[in-house]
Amino acid sequence: MDVPQTQNTAPVLEFRCLYTSDLRRKQKRWQDGRLKFHTFNKRVMVYDERSNFVGDTHWREDTAFDEGEEFELERGGILVEVGECVGKRDQDLSELVDKRVKEREERAAAKGAGLNPSRPHASLIRTSQATPGPLQHKPLNVLLATTGHYGRAMIPQTSPFEEKQRLINGNQDGMGKERPAKRRKPNEDAPSKSG
């Protein structure tokens, strides 16, 4: 199943499969699907009947991947049972191999020049800055709008009940103790006893 470095193609095996997301149920509901096993990197990709991607995993067993295998996908909690092999095709790996060779050369060139490829060189950073001087830090008080109170909620001196009583007593000083009766609308008739 291992692909030699000189070979630019690798077989992809296609199988019928059954998959289910009922891992904990005793009576599982299986669905038909198909899976592709990439022999180059031992990746297993599962699809439903309409070719929608269900999930994937990498085959980490020492045994050969074949019919009757049962495994769980990495994400989504889906159990897959491999059925019969329905096809085999060769996948062109030249693009992938060329990409890996190019990345390896770039890392070697960066290591030879003393650069870390994940972090730009310090001289590149200095030349790309638009401001000539170092940044001046502003105090936090300048950045925040001050309300005069920090850290704790302001507790009122009087309770809501006392506030309500004060408002009622303040309004009653100019009036009698009872509330005035509601006024009727001018075009509304008086209610009759019959309703």
Automatic annotation (TrEMBL):
Tell me the Gene Ontology biological-process terms attached to this UniProt entry: double-strand break repair
Residues in a coiled coil are none
One Gene Ontology cellular component: nucleus
Q: Which domain of life is it from?
A: Eukaryota
Q: Where is this region: Disordered?
A: 154-195
- Compositional bias (Basic and acidic residues) at which positions? 186-195
The record's section on InterPro entries has: DNA_Repair_Helicase_ZGRF1, ZGRF1-like_N
Residue ranges of every copy of the 5'-3' DNA helicase ZGRF1-like N-terminal domain listed in the record: 12-93
* The protein's name in its UniProt record: 5'-3' DNA helicase ZGRF1-like N-terminal domain-containing protein
